[in-house]
Amino acid sequence: GQNIDQPTEMTATEGAIVQINCTYQTSGFNGLFWYQQHAGEAPTFLSYNVLDGLEEKGRFSSFLSRSKGYSYLLLKELQMKDSASYLCAVGDGGATNKLIFGTGTLLAVQP
Amino acid sequence: SAVISQKPSRDICQRGTSLTIQCQVDSQVTMMFWYRQQPGQSLTLIATANQGSEATYESGFVIDKFPISRPNLTFSTLTVSNMSPEDSSIYLCSVAEQGFGAFFGQGTRLTVV
């Protein structure tokens, strides 16, 4: 079966660092993606990991361990505008490489 | 990245009726995907639409309820048929680019009353 788990909600303080974890068990794997979704808007692409290790992109970094079926998204220097849902998704590696989405984590950044 | 235009952006429909959602991409793409996002939930894939062939539906979704057209490489439609309040969701079309996963249209917020 396909299973992707994330914490449902997290709260953090402006200026701080927050780590959002994602664990997955899928029949295939062709990359792990993180998306940001503000309320009422479509998801927007944040990062992509296909090999183990850390990918850094400005204030956002994403880590992958394929052997552990584990990823995290690290957000630094949090800003109020970072309050959003963060979605972890796995490419299933099939013919269409469709994405399987996790449950999503709602992050609230407080002053 | 592809630019995806989806319409309508929102609609309120009577139960028992049908709504067709359109998705236009600014470049030719092989695969287009239709997702549903129920209130407070993550995204669930409805089907994959490949030009020139029938759509491939995920478990729990059937063609009679969600017929899909894919007449060319830049356009697709999803119809939500015989709607009930349980169909109230956001419906999103997307295309995939290698290494970037899915890019999404702005979504259609459907309310069934």
Q: Could you walk me through the main structural features you see in this protein, from its secondary elements to its overall organization?
A:
The complex is a heterodimer of chains A (111) and B (113). Chain A is an all-beta fold and 111 residues long. Chain A has no helices and eleven strands. Chain A has strands at residues 3-5, 9-13, 18-25, 32-37, 44-49, 53-57, 60-65, 70-75, 84-91, 99-101, 105-110. Chain A is globular, with a radius of gyration of 13 Å. The N and C termini of chain A lie far apart (41 Å). The mean pLDDT of chain A is 93. With 113 residues, chain B is mainly beta. Helices cover 0% and strands 54% of the residues of chain B. Chain B has no helices and eleven strands. Chain B has strands at 4-7, 10-13, 19-25, 31-37, 43-50, 56-57, 68-72, 75-80, 89-97, 101-104, 108-112. In chain B, strands 2, 4, 5, 6, 9, 10 and 11 form a seven-stranded mixed beta sheet that branches. A four-stranded antiparallel beta sheet of chain B has the order 1-3-8-7, with no helix packed on it. In chain B, a hairpin with a 5-residue loop joins strand 5 and strand 6 (56-57). The radius of gyration of chain B is 13 Å and the shape is globular. The mean pLDDT of chain B is 92. At the A-B interface, strand 5, strand 9 and strand 10 of A face strand 4, strand 5 and strand 10 of B.
